Amino acid sequence: MVLLHTETRPETGSADRYPTRLSTPGTHLDRKDPTVWGRVETPALVNFDTDGFASVDDLLTPTEVADFSAEIGRLAGDPSLRDDERVIVEKSSKRVRSVFEVHRLSAAIADLTRESRVAGLARQILGSEVYIHQSRVNYMPGFRGTGFYWHSDFETWHAEDGMPAPRAVSLSIALTDNYPINGSLMVMPGSHRTFVPCLGSTPAEHYRESLQEQEIGVPTQDDITTLANTYGISQFTGRAGSALLFDSNLMHGSSNNITPFPRSNIFLVFNSAENTLVEPFAAPAPRPGYIGSRDFTPLSA
Fold first, then answer.
1. Locations of Basic and acidic residues compositional bias (predicted)?
2. Is CB count within 10 Å lower at the N or C end of the chain?
3. What is the pLDDT of residue 146?
4. By C-alpha distance, which of 104, 106, 116 is closest to 59?
C-alpha cells in the first residue's frame, strides 16, 4: 500500500496532503478522506462509495429537457455574452465549448440547483450543507466536438482554487442522448481512491488556456495506463434527462465527437460548506470566481 505523505506550504505552514504540480514524478497517493461523509438514502447512490460515481435515470422529465435545452441554446446564442469571459470557445472551430456560472446567468438553472432532487444528492454524499463551487453548460457539437483528456477535477481545484480536500461532487445532467459513440463521459470506477500528482508548475492565468485545452494538471500516459489496468474503464450512457453524480477525484475524460449526434449537459459542482477554499496549493493566484467560486453561501431550498 502506498502511504499518503504531506508537504508543508511555506506561506501558511499548513500541511498539503495532496501535493501536485511537481518538478519530478510523484508517487500515487492513497486517499485518506472519506468518499461518503453523510448517509445515502437514494437507492441509485448505493454503490457511490465503492465506484466513486452513480447514474440517476430520469432526473429531468422530457418537458424539462426541452425547456433547459432551449435555455442553453439561448445562452450560446446570446450576442451580449459573446465577449464575456464566462463563454469558452473551441480553439479551432470557434464554436461555444462551455458557458460558466450558468446558475447566475439563468434563473431556471439557479432554481434547479436548489431543488432537493439535485442538491439533495450532494448533501447525502458530502454530509453537510453545500454551495456551488462551479456551474457550467458543456456543448459538444456533432462532427467537430472536442473531448476532455483524462483528469481528476480535484487535482485542479486543489492546485488552482485552494480546495483543501476531495469533499465535492459533480452532477452532469444530460440534455441530449449519450451514446457510446458521441463522446460520452468515460470514468474509471474506484479511481477516486487514488490521487495522482501531476507534473509542471502553474503559469499565471493558466485558466485562459486550460479551459480550451488542458496541458498542465493532467496525468501522464503511464499514470493512465496504471489506473486503467487497476480499475478498468466504464462509460456513462443514457437518454436525455439522466444524470451522473461523481466524486471530485474520479479519473474521467471524453473523446472527440465525430458523429452527427451532438452532446450537451448542465454541469454542477457542489462543494461542502465545511470544505471552503483557501489559497491555491500550486498556483500563483486563485482563478476567477466564475470558475472557482469564493461565495460559500449554502444553497437554500
1. 1-10
2. N
3. 84
4. 116
